[in-house]
């Protein structure tokens, strides 16, 4: 197994585990575990491949689906042993985000040859699985939180692209990209690292906006 395939399986497995843990928080049955694990594990990569116009990765290699299902089954029988399932979701998600940001960027670079599109593919691969998980489960989506999330995925992707184009090789570039993304996400989880947010006066209500318009008889 080469480094790229290894990263792909790491990302799928860890994201699947976060989906299964969320299913445990919602007290779903084992089929619900499998569904949410598979959706989370394959969601980002599926959208990436559809955008790139290449065969969807799990269609050509069903082992990815079996990996998600197996992860769901293991989680179903062991989730109750974890002291804080939500904390596990956050940290497994951080590892998966970093791994998938790197792999998605590499695949985007191989397919398109464009550094810009590679970074976009990395961000898409790393974040959409978690977004779909939260939407389906009715959780607050990761995109609506202030702490670094998309930024960490973008950083992992950028470092991979820069390292690869600098001739550092896939393994070294992947390691640097993963370390960068995970460091940023870890800082967000432990030290509340976040980018400055937009500050403005509250938006006008529809009634306030219409009040200033001249009436038409």
From TrEMBL:
Q: Which domain of life is it from?
A: Bacteria
Q: Where are the transmembrane segments?
A: 6-23, 30-51, 63-82, 89-109, 115-136, 148-166
Question: Sorted alphabetically, which InterPro entries does this protein's record hold?
Answer: Gly_transporter
Q: Show where the Glycine transporter domain sits.
A: 6-79, 90-163
Entry membrane topology: Multi-pass membrane protein
The answer on whether this UniProt entry bears the keyword Lipid metabolism reads no
Swiss-Prot/TrEMBL keywords: Cell membrane, Membrane, Transmembrane, Transmembrane helix
Query: Which is a Gene Ontology cellular component entry for this protein?
Result: plasma membrane
What is its subcellular localisation? Cell membrane
Q: Which Pfam families match?
A: Gly_transporter
UniProt keyword annotation of Cell membrane present: yes
Similarity field: Belongs to the UPF0126 family.
Please give the name of this protein: Glycine transporter domain-containing protein
Species of origin reads Roseisalinus antarcticus
